[in-house]
Structure formats: structure tokens, C-alpha cells
């Protein structure tokens, strides 16, 4: 499978972005390749397109399945497995956000809760606990907010995003009205 320069450029960029999404470069490339292909691809097609080993593809597919980002297709009469994205771009983004929350935010919140519940033994620990409480509260707020965003339909989320700076104007107006009362 030969990629056009435009598609190859996109796939390579997805690989570079992979580390920012919580994947390695190869898995990022695999996501990019699967997302922009209209038809499901076999492991051999993925290996050929990305110029990587079949074993590397197998490990990548397992990782993508653990993130629930790919689904397997079987074609009657064909023994090969075919892979495609497990849902729309919005579905994939939600799964990445959810998995990163589980892998990164939840353990941090657990650690912070444990540290905050312990009694402080010194003024330094008291100050540290106050800072940890602030971090905890911020992460809790962001987690609740992101959970609310994940409940929105893609259309609702796009509408919210289009509001952009208008949201801050509404908040400023609300603050002004509350100050006057």
C-alpha cells in the first residue's frame, strides 16, 4: 500500500502527535492511517503503508484495542482481520480523554486525597497540604467539567466551541450584574 505524499505527511504528523496523546509514535501513525482510510485495513496493509514490521503492527493493534480505538472486521470467505476506527472522530477523542483520565488524573486524585487526609506534622506540611488541596480541587473541577462535555453530542459540542470568547463575555456580564445587586 503506497501512501500519497499528502496522506503520508498527515500520518507522520499523527505519529509525532502520538506522544502528546499518550501513545508512542507508531501507534499515533496507525491511528492516523486508519482514520483517513475509507475502508478497513489488514495488518499487512498497515505494516506496508507505515514500513514497519508485522509484529509491531500486532502490538500496536493490541494497544489500540486496549484503548477501544479500533474495531475488527471479518469478511465472509476471507480469513484476514480488518481494522478500522471504533467510531467517529468525536468518539475516538472521548475515548482518549477518558483513558487518559483513568491513567493520569485518577491516580493523582487518589494520591492527593490520601495526602490531604493525613494530619500535618509541621507548618511546611500544613502549607503543602493546602497547596495539594488546591490542586485536588482544580483536578476535580476539570474532571467534572470534562465529564459534562463528554455527555454532549458532537453537534452540541461544536455549538459550544463556536461560542468561543462569547462565553467569557456572558460570565463577565453575570459578574457585573451580581456586583450591582
From TrEMBL:
Domain HTH marR-type: 33-80
Keyword annotations from UniProtKB, A to Z: DNA-binding, Transcription, Transcription regulation
CDD domains from the UniProt entry: HTH_ARSR (cd00090)
A Pfam family of this chain: MarR_2
KW Repeat (keyword) present: no
Single GO molecular function: DNA-binding transcription factor activity
Family indicated by similarity: Belongs to the GbsR family.
Protein known as: HTH-type transcriptional regulator
Organism listed in the record: Pseudoalteromonas rubra
Upper taxonomic lineage: Bacteria, Pseudomonadati, Pseudomonadota, Gammaproteobacteria, Alteromonadales
